[in-house]
Amino acid sequence: MNQQNYFSYENNMKYMGSSQFKAFQKCEAAALAEIKGEYVRPLSDALLIGSFVDAHFEGTLNIFKVQHPELFTRKGELKSQYQHAEYMIQRAERDKMFMKYMSGEKQKIFTGEIAGVPFKIKVDSYHPTCIVDLKCMKDFASVWNEEERRREHFITYWGYDIQGAIYREIVRQNTENTLPFYISALTKEKPEPDMQLYWIPDNVLDDALSEVKSLAPRFQKIKNGEITPQRCEKCAWCRHTKVLNAPVNFLEECEVYEVE
Ligand SMILES: [Zn+2]
Questions:
Q1: Which CATH number fits domain 9-42+95-229: 3.90.320.10, 3.40.630.30, 3.40.50.10470, 1.10.1130.10?
Q2: Ligand 1 center to 172 CA (angstroms)
Q3: What is the pTM of this model?
């Protein structure tokens, strides 16, 4: 496996990755459709800014700019949001510690197995002493978790603990070292971006790994066609493939609010 075929259909079928695992947690039907290429997640500005900053730290920003003409205006200038992405990069580069954490081996690929399921990972910045993943986000504010009806730290809301658990375990299988996992985080705030290095403690990763171990075999069976995926009935894919069977009594939906 290499950088070019890491996200290919064959490798996404053969291996589970941390994004794929998180997609299955959100909606099994959408995750499967995405692997099969039936559903293409829309490429948002937010995603593209993240990839832009990733590409810079990987040293491939020039290739990235050629591959994404949509970054530029008709006059050939970088659109303002990507000019700001360049400013975010400059801000991070002024910080010695941020750069030290980002100075590992870039986009290092490892494979392994969790609960009998083949996994692949691609580490943003791999050091023999730690694992670092780069994240760009709106800000560091807590996020409302609708299901649990409470605000939550963005680290757990976005499943970065799940990602850290998968990365730490697959690296351990390859190197025999259980390494600490860090997020080097950069915000898109204007005019001044914020930045932070977050450590996710080992006991948090232990709990997250248990969750991965308990769910990965089910998701693998869905990929193998042995189990029918469950629909969340909320996401874009479920709305796109929805079929109406009968009218619904609206009062049933009111009762749902009352229970909550
Ligand atoms: Zn869904």
A1: 3.90.320.10
A2: 33
A3: 0.93
